[in-house]
Structure formats: C-alpha cells, structure tokens
C-alpha cells in the first residue's frame, strides 16, 4: 500500500504507513489496490463542514481538497478491477479503512506521541522488533 500526505506545506509527500502520519491538518490518500481512501484530518474536515472551500479567499484550501480527489481519480481510471473509492474523516466510521492498515506506534497502551491512537491488541513494529532481537540474543 502507498500513503500520500497533502498539506498546506507543499506538494504531496509520501508518508509512513504509521499512526504518526494521521494529523488533524492533513489529507491522506491511501492506495491498497482494492481500496482508494481519501482521509481528512479533524481540522480539515471541520473546515470543509464550515464550507470554507466555497469562499473566494480560501482558494488554497479548495485546491488542497481537490488535489487528492484528482489523484484518486487518476489511480482508479488506470486500474482494473476498479478499486472501491472511500472518502472519510478522522474519528468517523469509515476511517477504519485507513486505520486498519497503519502501524500502531501510538496506541491506547503507549505514552503520548504524535498522531492518532490506534485501538488494537497488536503491538507496533518497533515493539515486535525489540522482542525479536531479545529472543535472538538469548539463544
């Protein structure tokens, strides 16, 4: 899967498939071949609900909202079978399509950290690797 992050800071950037990539002021585009997910962070979703993108002075925000949709459409046009297209907001039900693919480096068991907490019983890749190294050294 690939994950692109869209923000006001510049052009789309590749992002880690990690919960630290989920930020309130970004839009994420996840391509898993069978699903194309456009995920709006909490702040972006609130601004969209307030209809800031319809106001003339917020052209940059309108462009930010349109960029991942355009890229998602290009992905879907070039793929067979056509993937399922999902648009979701942070803390909404369809956000599970993105959150299920992320490494849970920030979870309900971890202390603080940037990004969204992933509620899972799975351990993060870092914890798994530390445990694997400990087992390898013991034998």
How does this model look, in words?
There is one protein chain. This protein is of the alpha+beta class and 139 residues long. 32% of the residues lie in helices and 20% in strands. The chain contains four helices and five strands, in the order ββββααβαα. Strands 2-1-3-4-5 form a five-stranded mixed β-sheet. The longest helix has 19 residues, at 59-77. The protein is globular and about 65 Å long. The protein starts with a strand and ends with a helix. The mean pLDDT is 89.
Which parts are unreliable, with pLDDT below 50 for 5 consecutive residues or more? Answer: none
Structural class: alpha+beta
Beta-strand residue percentage: 15-25%
Write out the strand line-up for the largest beta sheet, numbering strands in chain order.
Answer: 2-1-3-4-5
How far the N terminus sits from the C terminus, by CA atoms, comes to 35 Å
Summarize model confidence as the mean pLDDT: 89
